[in-house]
Amino acid sequence: MTNSAAKNRLAHAYLFGGPAEIGKKTLALEFAKWLLCAKIKLHPDSSLNGGTGEEKFACGQCRSCQDIAKNQHPDVFVLQPRQEEKRGVIKTLEIGIDEIKTLRHQISLFPYSASHKIAVIDQAEWLTREAANSFLKTLEEPSGKSLIILVSPAWQTLLPTIVSRCQLIRFSAVPEKEIFDKLSKEAKNIKVLNRIVKLSAGRPGRALNLLREAGSLETLQQNIEIFKKILKSDLAARFEVAQRLSQNSSLAQENLSQWLLWLRDKILENNACQDLAIKIDGVSESTLNYPQKNLINSMREIQKTKVILDNPSFNARLALEVLMMKI
Fold first, then answer.
1. Residue environment code for 252-269, b if the CB has 16+ CB neighbours within 10 A, otherwise e
2. Distance between CA 11 and CA 171 in Å, rounded?
3. CATH of 174-213, one of 1.20.272, 1.10.10, 1.20.58, 1.10.8
4. SS3 state of residue 140
5. CATH topology of domain 2-170
6. Distance in angstroms (rounded) separating the CA atoms of residues 153 and 102
């Protein structure tokens, strides 16, 4: 993208697709900083001052970079679903047509102080059908001074007409060594960092959250213990867990991801590959109580449920209850 920008060949819209917490939104905002950075003069007709356009990173110090970091830049707009709590239930609200109409108007105007108007739509899979159809008009008739970046861990659920009008950039897991090297200066305990890196499953954002959030590893341990109890519980107890998880879709996704890592460990241990196991629960135990066929089936059903939960139109509680009947 930086090469395209330097040659004035940017696409009008990009779609960043890949796993959650892998850095898609972060990269979108970093690119916005780079494009509008006062130290990187890409467009002679802009009001910006500075460099040659050959710099690989934004300076992070100029007014433009700081305004983007604070979400205060007059030419950069970030739209994402809001969360609402009612009676203890945290619900993610879809991005509606009124929000999209406001965004379309904002990016249709001439830039206030920069070379482009930039719109970043995070978790774009939460667009309502009506909002998506409305936004399609902007993709079909883009302004020459606008840049749109859609960010989604479930980009396959977007309207095919939206996907086809964006340049798709797929994000994949980051090598463990890169995550370790990046976080090694911040970590106080290398042993703990090693475990966090493995638990992150190639997601830098997840690794950073585990490192910075107090008690995150303890919470993970508790989630694994809950899953082990589920495997031995009756349906009534399982449905109680499903009801609790359905109250927060983000939390449900994280729990399912942790369960998948534990199942992976057990399958590796069953096949005498303990050295490859993450040991997510920090405990080595007999795998006799976990037949491989059951482990593989549970992993398959959890993966199916994660895909379902990525789609806002599905009933999360029903999907989780079906999962509880199958694992």
1. bbbbbbbbbbbbbbbbbb
2. 18
3. 1.10.8
4. helix
5. Rossmann fold (3.40.50)
6. 24
Task: Give Cα 244 to chain centroid, integer Å.
Answer: 22
**CA separation for the pair 305, 316 (Å, rounded):** 9
Please give the backbone phi and psi of residue 150, each rounded to the nearest 5 degrees, phi first: -90, 140
- The tokens for 251 are 């939390």
Distance CA 205, CA 166 (A): 25
CA 93 from chain centre, in angstroms, equals 17
Would you say how long the chain is, in residues? 327
Asked if 242 contacts 249 with a C-beta cutoff of 8 angstroms, the reply is: no
Sequence-distant contacts of 185-193: CB under 8 A, at least 24 apart: 186/211, 187/211, 192/217
Domain spans of the chain, in order of start:
2-170, 174-213, 216-326
- List, for residues 265-322, the tens digit of each pLDDT value: 888 888 888 777 777 665 555 555 678 888 999 999 999 999 888 877 788 899 999 9
pLDDT of residue 51: 45
pLDDT (average), residues 117-139: 94
User: What is the DSSP code string of 181-213?
Assistant: HHHTTT-S-HHHHHHHHHHHTT-HHHHHHHHHS
- Tell me, what's the pLDDT at 83? 82
Mean pLDDT of 53-65: 82
User: Which helix (H) or strand (E) covers residue 146, if one does?
Assistant: strand 146-152
